[in-house]
Amino acid sequence: MQIINTNIAALRAQRHLNSVETEMSTVFRRLSSGLRINSAADDAAGLAISTRMEARIRESTVAIRNANDGISLIQTAEGGLETITDNIQRIRVLALQAANGTNSDFEREAMQIEVDYLLEGINFAAKHSRYNGINLLNDSSSPLEDNGIVSLQDDETKTAVMIGLTTGWLESSENLIEEFYGLTGDGQTLGIFLADTGDPESDGPGGTAAYVQTLVGASGPAVNGSVELYIDMEDFRPANLPNGGTEPFYNDRIIAHEMVHAVMAVSTNWGELNTWFKEGAAEFIHGADERIAIDLAAAGSSSALVSQGFTGAPAAWGGTSAEYSSSTIAVRYLHDAIVAAGGEGIKDIMEELALDPNNTTLDDAIAQVSTDLGGLRGYVSGAGFTGTLFTDEATFLTDYDTNGDDFLDEQIQLVDPDTGSIQGSNVNPANPSINQEDAVEDPIDYNSDPLEHWQEIWPSGFTVKASRNDNSFSSVYIQLGATASDRLEINLYGANTSALGLDGVDISEDPLDAIERSDEALELVSFIRANLGAAQNRLESTINNLAIQKENLVSAQSRIMDTDYAAETARLARLTVLQQAGFSVLAQANSRPQQVLQLLG
């Protein structure tokens, strides 16, 4: 029995020693590698987190290197521009000198020789300002080219309207509709027509300023390729860029209104939508408080303005200004009712309509949103949207016809600068106030293809030149992260004599012209340098941010991955004592059987 007990003790001592040695191997591995986690067995979750952090750290490292490369590119361009600036300044000085009446023709011709060399120097600097094979300054087009619109007809107003369309009116409208209504075009063509007096599409001044025409059946969206935007030039004079027209009904707001029709025509069940909803939604995108105030005064009371014919069944539309105002109030009423129930507003309705544009009606959309939000309720004076439930278009219009006047009196502000648009503070206090000029953002840089979700067909009589963004030479992208949005575009502009308007400068013939052209060239070079300087500042700021981010990530990864030498050293000391004690116990346990056998022998 004593021998059996001794063997058991020996086995226990051996197991203890094996466990201690395994733990000591882990400690030695951590101390030798400096890492707490050497395999997934050490800490699977920690290894996964650390791997992701390592990817971000390496991403930040490369992004910092990319940003520094971008700064080097900018500095290379700056060096060339500095030389070009010096040459232009010298040309201007020579032109001033040549303009002095004390100089003879011979002396002016001698000065022109130097000017010719200076012009060659400008072209040389522009041509040889390269970074890694990228030509930075040798584009022949002017950095401030006149919007890229070439008019083939003598009509300044039409040209101005075209400039408005390509520098913000269309692009801003599309952005607003996508952001606040969740709708986009579907890649169809959009024909654009500028109608003159006498054209069948023009009804003269004071009539319909613009309209969208489509081919559409009794149900479903517009026929592919049938959407056309007609602009009556009689109502777009004066052009008055950047907004166009006169206060408060600026032309850019008219374009925004019509673009709502265009987008809804191709993305919703346009054929079955009643006119009040189409027009109210179009007005709501840019606001119509000015119209509402005028029509309210004419109607004499809120109830008289709200109670228009379209609220009956079936909904009728007469096209009066008061109906436009009332339909805008109705859409706002529906919007606020949805927001009060916890939704996003009219955007919820639009997105429901767009899910199945061939079949979903406004009845269906209102019913679905009501179901999703647990019911939509009408307005109660002094109590908000706590009234009767409405579940479709008919019950909504009945409720609006009954309670819309209280809503108008208590919820719609008509005396402040905000236009009452969906984007402004009157609808959502968290948003900034949007006045008449800001209802459509302007100006956005010229773009020959301003609509992302349409193919524009421009009016005849104009050539829309490719914008700089369409030219592969025009920009360099600096990648500052892992996604397409994590990059900075550095615009490159021409700075040779052609781009700067200095070709053919002759101070011997017309020194005053040379002075004027030199001043314009200096402005262009200053414009280029300002853009490059802004880009460099952005890159330097990004580098600082990335460096801080990288430092924090490295620190966090270290806390997960790195060995705590103090803890592991203390653990090693403990394990060494345990190992030595285990060896001693094992030795004693192994010696006991021999002692017993000797006694028995």
What would you say about this model in short?
By secondary structure, the protein is an alpha+beta fold.
Keywords:
4-stranded mixed beta sheet, flat, flagellum, cilium
Report what the structure shows:
With 601 residues, the protein is an alpha+beta fold. Helix content is 55%, strand content 7%. The strands form five sheets. A four-stranded mixed sheet has the order 5-6-4-9, covered by helices on one side. Strands 1-2 form a two-stranded antiparallel sheet. A two-stranded antiparallel sheet has the order 3-10. β1 (130-131) and β2 (134-135) form a beta hairpin. The model is unreliable at 468-473 (pLDDT under 50). It is found in: Secreted; Bacterial flagellum. This is Flagellin.
| Category from helices, strands and their pairing | alpha+beta
| Rg, Å, rounded | 38 Å
Strand-and-helix sequence, N→C? HHHEEEHEEEHHHHHHHEEHEEEEHH
Can you count the helices? 14
The description of the largest β-sheet is:
4 strands, mixed
Cα distance spanning the termini: 17 Å
Instruction: Note the beta-strand portion.
Output: 5-15%
Q: Which overall shape is indicated by the principal axes computed on the Cα atoms?
A: flat
Strand arrangement in the largest pleated sheet: 5-6-4-9
Which ranges are low-confidence, i.e. pLDDT below 50, for 5 or more consecutive residues? 468-473
* DSSP strand tally: 12
The overall pLDDT, averaged over residues, is 85
Summarize the amount of helix as a percent range.
40-55%
